[in-house]
Amino acid sequence: MINRQLTLPESLTIHSNTVRCSIRPDSLSLDTFLLDTEPEIKFKRWRQ
User: Fold this and answer.
1) How far apart, in Å, are the Cα atoms of 4 and each of 1, 7, 23?
2) Is the pLDDT of residue 1 over 60?
3) pLDDT attached to residue 43
4) In whole angstroms, what is the distance from residue 19 CA to residue 15 CA?
5) Chain CA centroid to CA 12, Å
6) 3-state helix, strand, coil in the chain (%, to 5)
7) Is 45 helix (H, G, I), strand (E, B) or coil?
8) How far apart are CA 36 and CA 34, in angstroms?
9) Distance (Å, whole) CA 48 – CA 46
10) Residue 30: which residues within 8 A CB-CB, separation 6 or more?
């Protein structure tokens, strides 16, 4: 493997539900991804 250049992909797609870590560039603002949202509470009426 002589004279082989390293190429980095711009994107990566993983088809799995076990992804535990994602690497993002330092220039990306995390405030856009970390949103403090409360779950919606839906009330149901009881049938009598």
Assistant:
1) 6, 9, 25
2) no
3) 67
4) 9
5) 12
6) 5, 0, 95
7) coil
8) 7
9) 6
10) 24
